[in-house]
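User: Can you help me understand a structure? I only have the sequence.
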Amino acid sequence: MIRAARASKLCLAGALAMVLASCGGGDSSTAPSPIGGGGGTPTLTPPTSGRQFADPAKEALSVGDVQRVIAQAAGEAQRRGLPSTIAVVDRVGNVLGVFVMAGAPGTMTISRQTISGTAGPGEEVGLQGARVPSAAAAIAKAITGAYLSSGGNAFSTRTASQIVQEHFPPAPNTVGLESGPLFGVQFSQLPCSDLSTRMQDGRIGPQRSPLGLAADAGGFPLYKNGVVVGGIGIAGDGLYGFDANIRNRDQSDEEGIALAGTQGFVAPRAILADRITVDGTSLRYSDVTVSDIGPLQGSFGAVNGPLGTLAPVTGYNNGTIRAGTAYGSEASGVRPSKPSEFALRDAYVLSDGNGNGRYPIRAGTDGASVAQPLTAAEVRIILEEAFAVLSRARGQIRRPLDSRMQATVSMVDTHGVVLGIVRSPDGPLFGTDVSLQKARTAAFFSNPVAAQQLQSSTPDIARYVERVRAFLDDPRALTGEFAFADRSGGNLSRPYFPDGEVGPVAGPLSVEQPGQFNPFMTGLQTDLIVPNLLEHLGFVVSGGAQPDTLRGCTKLADAPGGTKRIANGIQIFPGSVPIYRGGRLVGGIGVSGDGIDQDDMVSFLGLHNGGQRAGGVGNAPVEIRADRIVVNLGGRNVRLRYVSCPFAPFLDDPAQNVCQGL
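Assistant: Let's start by predicting it. Here is the structure, written out as tokens:
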């Protein structure tokens, strides 16, 4: 896969341009506070009458806060003898400052580690072995900490590593367990995404990430008065990797430096990842503790100049420190909806900064492909019903227990055009881009043109159609005969099939051989966007001399009207279903932000309820759902999955099998 692109990806070793800047003075060192200290408790305004959710308090990092975070991290890096690049972002991804220490490596090498060893030169697939700018790695880590976290959960890049690998939890003795619950989420928030915004365009958040989400230790969220306000990321050891063994404890210098930077801005202890379980497994927040870090350097003036300098990063920051924006304000790009946008009193929407919603509800634009596109009234009803299911559901990854689920819901037509996006007040930011990826992925793989679109691309992409058809023993696979939810396509995207077993067979949308997998190569998902990613990194490294990647991921042909059906990449973990009118595909709905079974339920049950209310639209007919597909594995039959709804999911109803029979 993408071997023709290897020469270009290896040439990204050039260092980023830097300019000198100075600020502040004096020296101040203090002892670090205990992990969990300084973050306070979540300060949510109590819901007003008629509402079910509380609004996050409008907190933001000041310029002084950013300077303190950088100073603390740089002081710890000096103590450890690891000159590093330090990035700080706000909750919606604005890069507030990038500090490069003298002697810090200009590039990081993406891990070649696989389940069967280490890929050698010429054997790598996907992004394995690529060299990327250290600033890009640090920004990606900071964005990961900010985007995966909320008022109910605090996740780090180590948490991300745990939930994106081929086995959960990842360890040598867990081979054979199912893949991580957010398998594939690392390829979201991409620099080519049409949803994620770009600094140089003057558009407000959520901002893109130069490398998607990170699985390399050294990224944490930042909290202020108990409210998530951003993230910090560290790149200093030259390797951009992941933690393949969650059973041991690593002493990561990058993680220690990042932890020092968070002091005074630490998440409330009660919502740290290690207080949250998934399928009975506790998540991991940090392998480094506060006892591992030294006295804190509190003066930015003491590090700015003597230890390093602020640096511009093309497309992300101009070499200065800026204050963060308060999430929920118009300036953040995510705010409460107006009555004219949604009748839902708890709804939040994406905004353009001038009071206008970025994605007002609209009818389907795909009249050239669909006889009767979705109407604006149908879109509104389905989104309202999905939000109603979300509002009643018990959150899986949120604390305290029995909190309401929080997430984002997106709808698209068969051309991938956004018809509406709605989110709950405190849903993690990553779910915004991911819910749209999920909606588009379900609509794409259920579309009669899916195979033709893939076959018309490069030979490496076209090969996936051949693999799917051989694997399913169906020469018409991916021509709209079956409806694929993201759980179905995810089944085919795992390096071991069926997921949860170990054998010689890889899913046909995954790597060719199971042993080739690592989080930087998942298969089709990666191959579709690697050219875009390389274009963007070339833009960053060249200081803008090379053109940036276009807005709209993949090199697949445009749909009628000039849009891309999967304009922010595909997603391969559950939480979406295609939308049908009778037996005809008319769109997709995706949900992301909480547990994957909850995401499945909100998309599936929300669409069902919306269809019952609107009439004429709804879930795919039972006889064409992907769970009717049976794969023969050496005489043993394995059935694909469609959706999996949680048991007893509602806070206000003891109902158990809420999706059964629908």
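Now, to help you interpret it: The first strand starts at residue 29 and ends at 30. The CA atoms of residues 251 and 288 lie 6 Å apart. Let me know which part you'd like to focus on.
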